What does this fold into?
Amino acid sequence: METNPVYFYVNSIGPDGFFSVCKECMDENSATRVYLIRGGVSESGKFIEEVASSLEKEGLFSQHFLSFYGDETDGVYFPDIDVYIFDENKIFFQPSMIDCKHYTVDLGVCGDRKMLYRNSYIISDAKEREKKFLSKAVKFFSAAQSAGEDIERLSGDAVNAEKIERFVSRFIKRELGTVSTFSGKEYLRILTSPMPMGMIFPENTLTKMCPKLYCIDDRTGTVSKLLISQIKESAMLCGFDVISLLSPFSQKAEHLIVPEIGLGIITSDDLHHFEGDCFRRVSYTRFAESEKMKKHRSRIKFNVTARKELMTQGYFLLGEAKKCREEYLEVYSRSYNRDKIKSLADDTTREIISFVNCT
It folds into this structure.
């Protein structure tokens, strides 16, 4: 039996550099267990996919975490047994419960260290070039973020807060009901991420998890942030767990999923426009005073165009960084014993399966 996974990101890149929610994921629940795949730089993502595939065949539902480079895997999560698997080569914090709830699988023992040492200059040179391209991309993303903040500041004066509050109040009564005696929990993921091919978000996730999907068409970002923030707080007060889908730029929720009732609220803007089917589309214009918006229309339009151009250059630089990464991954890939890696994957799979009856 195989399950159909959904896809998120837990790592991304934005105006402040590398952005990750891995640590927050690891601390979600007291019983959460985490496997950290160390070493095997070119093989770690494949290792995670192999373990995930085996567990999915056992009937376990999974969430896959994509790489912002586009063709790698950063990790996977199995909600039924509360187990994460992360590529430790891509996280930058110290796990706190090593060998207790945080387990390390070292793929480095499967590598030919002499061969890797002989090729260390090639690897180092490609990594350094990758780092420079990423640094340049971050600068363009930072400039794009500044343009976005100016758009929000200008449009913020025109937003009618009372209209937003009335909409949220009706929405809560219709979709979520009344306040509960207990509060729901918030889980963090990323759904939209800059990649070499543009700002991408996996629509498969929305289709599978959100039979009822609201889409907020908001080119400014001001209205959608207010709506999603208020709906999120209300949903938790009504006792529902929520998945807050953070923007790697604002690091605030730009989309929201309430899994228990299959409800999703997403932002559609100029950078990640959603054209799929949805239950209802909500335009930001219904919450904005048109006369006030007219005063800033030309400047907002200028900023929207500038942001698009800056983001496009950032995407291009990510593509150049990816080419450099592919250079050193090709060197790494020649240096590992696949049979040893397969054996480690089988051992890891068996151990995780043993958790099914003891969670």
Observations:
- The mean pLDDT is 90.
- The longest helix spans residues 290-333.
- DSSP finds nine helices and 16 strands in the chain.
